[in-house]
Amino acid sequence: MDTHPRPKAPRTLARALADPRFLLSVWMWRSLAYVATTFMVGGVLATVAAPLYMPWVMLMAAWGTGSPGPETIALAVFLGVFMVLVVGPLIALPLGALERHRLRLVLPDPHTNSGHRAPPAGLWGWIRVRYTEAATWREVAYVAVMLPMTGLIGLLCMILFGSLVILATGPFILSGTAEDPINLGPIILTTPQQALPYTLLAPVFLVLLLYTCGLYSYGHGVIARALLVGPPKEELRAELDQVTESRARLAGAFEYERRRIERDLHDGAQQRLVALSMDLGMARVELEEGSAAERRVAAAQAKADDLIDELRELVRGIHPRVLTDRGLPEALAELADHSPVPVSLDVDLPGRCPSHVEGTAYFVVVEALTNVHKHTEAEAVTVCADLREEPQGDVLVVEVGDHGPGGAEPARGSGLTGMADRVAVMGGTMDLSSPVGGPTRIRVELPCTISQTEVRR
Question: What SS3 class is residue 88?
């Protein structure tokens, strides 16, 4: 009984090529199948992709027959670039899908993600996404690489296979009625007896042909994987999780810093100003009423009181106390009461949202109302906030609309860009609709988990 374990079969083409048993393994047949299908795909591609390389072929032909004029060169270059930019993706996309399936012959890997994004509905959405993503233009580059690679391996295989056939059948060819000798370069064979020893070289050429197919299959597969296969979905998911965690840490750090600034202003600067106002009031008591000194102290006390009011507004702007104590509905109601533009509220929330979600929604409404007051002539604003159930989880939806002149653009620096960035940090989305003539509508969706302990009964 043989107790020696059998050596395991190579699991990749690269290891099989380095194994002496390559010619006896399944990888040899896979390589042959890959090369054969490459010839078929390359032949079809050479026909279909004719619009891509035809302008360049015509330009080279013009150079060969004479010196073409500048107009001819410019026209050929323009047509060539136009064809690559417009027709190239239409050829590369189906070719890339086919090649990713063929890759399993030589690079058996479950990760065959194309790297393409899911396009929105409609033809224009598909064109906009496909013609602007890097995965598409990598596939166009693969089209340009595959044509010469297919021609090169085709020429090399024809030389090896032709030599193999001639060497293997040389004695039979010369023993027939053929009068032409066999020319092997420095050696010319004229009789079957001269050709017979060279038949021993036929197996050598057969081995060379099979290893050439294996090496080409591996090299072609590596290039195809680099250009056609995107990162594995697991890797993309891990990167997305890291970005989400990083964004959550940034949001937490921002919330902590905001509370620190609010506490320092409320407990530090504001209390000192209040104490200063009280000291000035005590000083006025000891001064003669109506004197110049009393009037100066009174003016200083009035300025201190105004500064206290401004500081209170600043602290309220950083984070209103009512938002922390009573939640988003009450904070929006207070904001509507202080707004110079009449605000109609429609808030339907079953409970308290997380503090960072409430803060983001509140300041979106603050920024929107500020923009309405500063940049429009709207006479009324509508603010709606409700919680909606989505397959991915609950979403807080906030909408602010007005019937102003419209035409709002984030590029004008109206605070819309900062608002969108703040929403994005929380993993939400913001949609702005503001056609010229109005109305303007801002819709924000924020991932939200309602606290079950604070659900209203």
Answer: helix
Round to whole Å and give the CA distance between 207 and 196.
Answer: 19
Structure tokens at 214: 């294996």
Sheet strands (E) in 309-423 = 343-348, 381-390, 393-402
Amino acid in position 221:
G
> CA-to-CA distance for 401 and 384, rounded, in angstroms?
9
With residue 274 as reference, give the H or E element that holds it.
helix 270-286
- Listed in sequence order, the DSSP H helices in 121-264 are 123-130, 134-175, 192-195, 202-228, 233-264
At residue 128, what is the residue type?
R
Query: Which residues, including other chains, have CB under 8 Å from residue 406's CB and lie 6 or more apart?
Result: 434, 435, 436, 437, 438, 439, 440
- Name the residue with tokens 């080409």: 216
Which of 64, 173, 208, 348 is closest to 181 using CA atoms?
Answer: 173
pLDDT tens column, 146-192 = 888 888 888 998 988 888 888 888 777 777 655 567 767 677 777 77
Q: What is the DSSP string of 131-154?
A: TTSHHHHHHHHHHHHHHHHHHHHH
Q: Are 246 and 296 in contact (CB under 8 A)?
A: no
Question: pTM surpassing 0.90?
Answer: no
Q: Can you read off the two tokens belonging to residue 279?
A: 């000291």
The span from the CA of 362 to the CA of 442, in Å, is: 13
Q: What secondary structure letter does DSSP report for 290?
A: T
